[in-house]
Design a protein that fits this description.
about 270 residues, alpha/beta, Glutaredoxin, five-stranded mixed sheet, two-stranded antiparallel sheet, 7 strands, about 10% strand, disordered N terminus
């Protein structure tokens, strides 16, 4: 599939629309109930969802080194793709560590990690490079994909992603706080960030809608970020196989390095 600066979807099928509705309804709205259940009962087995078996929506965006990168570039490799921002100090670092540990377990050069920015105001190439280093991700197989809102929004929409809604002043405050944290906690090889859930807050009222408006890019699910609603964004890992087809989706709350490594090995073993 040819890629432009941001390519059109391979096809606007009913399956893709159903996938977007599923993500908005289940991932963003339903996670509150899922997590409430885990408080009272033993943790459930890892939950995955199966997206339509079709070539993943492609794009061409600059990575942390300025290299124009697309999913087509990774054909022959399994791709773990997710959506993060570089000044985050809770969910995103934990998610990055899980992916890094899974790649370490698998020990294959045919695994790549793609991190798509959800913060076009705050993410820079320098911050993306430092973020990758702190996660101890392999720099030659990791791409932190950047761009302005106009270039990133088609990608968010294709994958049912709600980005940050923070404005310039909030982003500036987040950057200042993150840089102060990094200065006080310099990078040490082998360090690991353990995610701790923020104080419980109820999901937003729209999360109860039976058929949410997928064009409304406001976060609808359970709060995951201690800094507040402005810093909420969708978080799931999508595994893309060696032929470029989307195969497995794993919400952040059910992500573990061992199960992710098993999924990656399964896709690597396919011909």
């Amino acid at each position: 599939m040819a890629s432009a600066e941001v390519s059109e979807p391979l096809r606007t099928s009913a399956g893709r629309r159903l996938f977007l509705m599923f993500l908005m309804c289940v991932m963003l709205g339903g996670l509150g109930g899922l997590l409430a259940a885990t408080v009272r009962h033993p943790p459930p087995a890892p939950v995955r969802f199966t997206p339509p078996r079709e070539v993943a929506f492609d794009f061409r965006l600059p990575d942390q080194n300025g290299r124009r990168t697309s999913l087509a570039d990774a054909r022959g490799s399994v791709v773990a793709m997710t959506f993060v921002y570089s000044t985050c100090r809770d969910l995103c670092p934990a998610e990055g560590h899980e992916i890094a540990e899974a790649m370490e377990h698998v020990q294959s050069r045919n695994v790549q990690a793609y991190f798509v920015s959800v913060d076009p105001l705050g993410d820079t190439a320098a911050r993306a490079r430092e973020w990758i280093e702190r996660r101890e991700l392999p720099p030659d197989r990791t791409h932190y994909l950047l761009g302005g809102r106009a270039r990133l929004q088609p990608v968010w929409k294709a994958y049912g992603i709600v980005p940050l809604v923070a404005g310039p002043s909030e982003v500036a405050a987040a950057v200042q706080g993150a840089e102060a944290y990094w200065k006080a906690n310099p990078y040490k090889p082998g360090s690991y960030y353990e995610y701790r859930y923020p104080p419980a807050r109820p999901a937003t009222p729209p999360s109860k809608e039976a058929f949410p408006n997928t064009g409304d890019m406001q976060y609808r699910g359970l709060a995951r970020h201690a800094a507040g609603w402005d810093y909420e964004h969708s978080a799931y890992v999508l595994l893309i196989d060696k032929q470029g087809e989307q195969r497995i989706g794993i919400p952040f709350e059910q992500l573990s390095e061992k199960s992710l490594a098993r999924d990656i090995r399964t896709l690597l073993a396919e011909r």
